[in-house]
Amino acid sequence: MSEENGRIKVALEGVPETLLWNLYNRAAEARRPGSRLLDDPRAVELVDRIDYPFERFGTAMAQWHALRVRCLDDEVRRFVAERPGGTVVALGEGLETQFWRVDDGRVRWLTVDLPETVEVRRTLLPDDPPRRRSLACSALDLRWMDEVGADVPGRDVLVTAQGLLMYLPERDAKGLIAACAERFPGGRFLFDALPRAMVARNQAGAMDPADGGYRAPRWEWGMDVKEYRKVASASPYIAGVRSLRLGRGRGPYAIAPLSHLIPGLRALRMSIVAVRFREETGTAD
Q1: What burial letters (b/e) apply to 114-136, b meaning 16+ CB within 10 Å?
Q2: Which domain holds residue 270?
Q3: Is 18 inside a domain boundary?
Q4: How many structural domains is the chain composed of?
Q5: What is the reported pLDDT for 1?
Q6: Residue 37 · residue 70 · CB < 8 Å
Q7: What's the pLDDT at 242?
């Protein structure tokens, strides 16, 4: 990274570069006057500070992305309200600014991401210990669990994986959820999943832009809306799995809350999945 004329040049590629894609979509929706779906002034500020050709992303996905983010935010807010002073572990967080959207003044936040991503994050969003910290390591390197603290009850932990698990093989994604279920009894796991048809199109190159625009990295794991309950089979320590309903959007996105019920749209709909862990791992059936 380098700074010139007050702007910071960020050079990333592959999966880490997706943090800029997600950031730009949030900022695009947050800049919208009037009926915007997401307030995210920090995302707008970051886009203005970063020297990067954001226009290559386009804004066609901004509203859909905002609906996803708002759904995830609402679930995190519920956890924060139910477990005051609890800990959110944000795996693969990139330049997500969720902390500032949901902060109640007490929540503790641990960002876990790859070293090159944490470097960018610490430059643009410096840590503020003890409530907000970053750890440079892979989400699959389970040593990050030790950073939560042995004195923190599992029920006070929410692990999020926004925009992450689709880049992992199914075995690794479910293995990560299972490891969290065993380590944080009574805790929760929140993630988003792409439909299988969309993953197949990505792998076949059918979604590649024709005009040289942004090409998303290869997705590895897809899960259709009717499959989310199968996540429970990843571990005997999972107590429940539910799919969250998206909020109402503008125009064609007004039907988002019912999109999981409409044939055709189901194959295009991203699932937001909330997993609840058993209170005591020794009581697994």
Answers
A1: bebbbbbbeebbeeeeebbebbb
A2: 66-283
A3: no
A4: 1
A5: 65
A6: yes
A7: 94
- Judge residue 36's burial from the number of C-beta atoms within 10 Å of its C-beta, 0-12 exposed, 13-18 middle, 19 or more buried: middle
Residue 189, both tokens: 């796991």
Sheet of 2-4, strands arranged across: 2-4, 7-9, 50-51
In a domain, 54, yes or no: no
Mean pLDDT per 10-residue interval, the chain, length 285 residues: 79 93 96 92 97 91 92 98 97 97 98 96 95 97 95 96 96 98 98 92 80 84 87 96 92 85 73 94 51
Instruction: Look at residue 174 and tell me if it is in a domain.
Output: yes
Whole-prediction pTM: 0.93
- CA distances 285 to 95, 185, 264, Å, are 39, 14, 37
CB atoms within 10 A of CB 255: 14
| pLDDT of res. 282 | 56
In DSSP terms, 243 is beta-bridged to 273
Peptide bond into 130 cis (omega under 30): yes
3 state DSSP class of 5: coil
C-alpha closest to that of 158 among 189, 112, 130, 193: 189
Q: What is the CATH number of the domain that holds 117?
A: 3.40.50.150
CA dihedral 138, 139, 140, 145 (to 10 degrees): 110
Question: What is the model's pLDDT at position 284?
Answer: 45
Three-state SS at 4: strand
Q: Burial level of 280, CB count in 10 A (0-12/13-18/19+)?
A: exposed
What's residue 212's pLDDT?
Answer: 65
Please tell me the distance from the alpha carbon of residue 67 to that of residue 254, in angstroms, as a whole number: 11
Residue 111 lies in a domain: yes
